[in-house]
UniProtKB/TrEMBL annotation:
GO cellular component: cytoplasm
UniProt signal peptide: none
Assembly notes: Homodimer.
Designated name of the protein: Cytosine deaminase
InterPro entries cross-referenced by the UniProt entry: CMP_dCMP_dom (IPR002125), Cytidine_deaminase-like (IPR016193)
Keywords per UniProt: Cytoplasm, Hydrolase, Metal-binding, Zinc
One BP term from GO: pyrimidine-containing compound metabolic process
The species this protein was found in: Pontibacter indicus
Superkingdom of origin organism: Bacteria
PROSITE patterns linked: CYT_DCMP_DEAMINASES_2 (PS51747)
Any single Pfam family the record assigns to this protein: dCMP_cyt_deam_1
Residue ranges of domain CMP/dCMP-type deaminase in the record: 1-113
GO MF annotation, one: metal ion binding
Keyword Hydrolase: yes
């Protein structure tokens, strides 16, 4: 397991243990962790605090994002993908897209390299969450 993806998985588990949605993210630049984050929509009552958004917020102002890559346990949604495109983050590595297909084509159409690892651990984590908290998941993806 890639150490950065493992950190993202750890962040996802942290979010779940806090009563939130198990999605974690890690921003890496030149082989070093710049920031980590996880979905905090529930914990902070903030509708836009997805895992990637929390991670980027935790990174603060780092100047250029051109030499970074972002890891996420789940394929980014259009909001997070829009931020990835806006910041010109060139590569996204995701744990899975089976439970949520997200905005892969959008990112790729804007030159972002997307690598889907299709990790059983990430799939099982999301399937378990969706089964146990379907109303919270539907809220997160705006399927109410």
């Amino acid at each position: 397991m890639d150490k950065f993806m493992q950190l993202a998985i750890d962040e996802a588990k942290k979010g779940r243990s806090e009563g939130g949605i198990p999605i974690g993210s890690v921003l890496v630049k030149d082989g070093k962790v710049i920031a980590t984050g996880h979905n905090k929509r529930v914990q902070e009552n903030n509708p836009i605090l997805h895992g990637e958004m929390d991670c980027l917020n935790n990174a603060g102002r780092i100047g250029s994002y051109r030499n970074t890559m972002i890891y996420s346990t789940l394929m980014p949604c259009y909001m997070c993908a829009g931020t990835i495109v806006q910041f010109k983050i060139p590569k996204v590595i995701v744990g899975e897209s089976k439970t949520f297909s997200g905005a892969r084509e959008f990112m790729e159409s804007h030159g972002v390299e997307v690598v889907d690892l299709n990790l059983p651990e990430c799939i099982e984590m999301m399937e378990d969450f969706i089964q146990k908290k379907p109303e919270l998941w539907d809220e997160d993806i705006m399927e109410l």
